[in-house]
Design goal:
By secondary structure, this protein is an alpha+beta fold. It has helices spanning about 5-15, 60-65, 90, 105-115, 120-130; strands spanning about 35-40, 55, 70, 80, 95, 100. The strands form 3 sheets. Strands 1-2 form a two-stranded antiparallel sheet. The chain has a two-stranded antiparallel sheet with strand order 3-4. The termini are far apart. The structure holds zinc ion (ZN).
Length: about 140
């Protein structure tokens, strides 16, 4: 794991206002500290710069790993994962109740690879919505 300077880490957290930039879970509602994710992984020459970093909850980051694209489950074409630095969340996803519904190929591969709608995550989101803490 690459060392990320404290000032850069702080910038990433503040820019995201403490929310995972993939699933929108706030860090205060997570059991684990959110992590700084390389949108384009270092393995694929992604740099440790503000423009390639985002805040990610542990679940999203673990499932994403060193992926940056996948096969669209609908068309089987290759599609890039959602890039929070280049794109708007609302363009690729819509929240329907506690489900994150994909609106594009990028949305579909991201929901699939990051397992955004796993049962446990839906249950957590449902409880947070009821408590008016999500999104
Ligand atoms: Zn997340």
């Amino acid at each position: 794991m690459t060392y990320i300077a404290e000032a850069l880490r702080r910038l990433v957290i503040e820019r995201a206002q403490g929310r995972c930039e993939y699933c929108l879970l706030h860090e205060r509602d997570s059991l684990y500290t959110h992590e700084v994710d390389h949108v384009i992984p270092e393995k694929h020459r992604g740099l440790t710069v503000a423009d390639n970093l985002c805040l990610s909850c542990m679940d999203c980051n673990r499932h994403k790993g060193s992926d940056f694209a996948s096969f669209d489950p609908e068309t089987e074409d290759i599609a890039m994962l959602y890039n929070p630095r280049r794109e708007k969340w609302d363009k690729h996803f819509q929240l329907v109740g506690a489900r994150i519904v994909p609106l594009s190929a990028t949305g579909r591969v991201t929901v699939f690879v990051l397992k955004l709608n796993d049962d446990m995550r839906i249950r957590t989101r449902r409880a947070l919505i009821a408590a008016q803490k999500y999104p």
